[in-house]
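Re: the pair you flagged

First of the two:
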Amino acid sequence: MAAKAIHKIVTFLGFLSLLHAAFSAVQHRSYLRITEQEFTTLPIDIIIQGVASLFAVMYGVMHIAGDFKEIRAVVDLENKSWETFRNLPSFQIFNHRGKALSPEYTVEEADRRR
């Protein structure tokens, strides 16, 4: 429980730091326009902050999201037996009105079942 809270804090701080790096980059570009200097690259501290923030966000999100599932469907299907492949319990309806359409259906037979 505490580890998940720590990962949420790391993710939040990573997003906050990433937002700060983006704001710093915009501010640096504005400064270059005001002083009429040519833009070549961002200062190294903004680049390092952006990359470190990105890794902090990725680390936090990977731990908050939980376990990854295998992309291949075969991995999930290997653990199931042949009988359970077509077992769809939500569609198994045994008592329905369709039996009344059968030519062998009689009302007395339905009353005896109740």
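Second of the two:
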Amino acid sequence: MSKVGDALAGFGVTFKAMLHKPITEQYPEKPGPVAPRYHGRHQLNRYADGLEKCIGCELCAWACPADAIFVEGADNTAEQRFSPGERYGRVYQINYLRCIGCGLCIEACPTRALTMTNDYEMADDNRADLIYGKDKLLAPLTADMTAPPHAMAEGSTDEDYYRGNIRADGLARPSEATR
């Protein structure tokens, strides 16, 4: 094809684009849909009765290639129980200035305490606000949950929690949990 023909083909693409109606998104006021499997902000989950799933094992921090996670575990006591196991994550921080969103921390978590939400709006003008602590990462309490620290459900063990046999109102019978 000649140089003139190439130029006309290029102008043809431009003229076609000029005739299309522009697509305008009203982003801040009306955010668009997010893909259901999008990996956004992290969340520390809770059991149905409000106890935290994080046991402070630090496996997520070890799995993080960007060294963006800091976990400091502590022991549960009879008076102060935050999770059903022996330990809980007393300090939990994710530095979103370092996080690369790879999801390796999610795969490393043995209790499925850490998941990723669809929330993608984490921009800030202050670097210190991009280090999310446990207060920002913990899943909110629902109406039927009790804020920790509190005792485990009556007659339950930590295994009942890990197997999903706990409801918000207490221990479910094993036959109810497997239905």
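Strands lie at 42-44, 69-75, 87-95, 114-116, 131-132, 166-167, 170-171.

-B.
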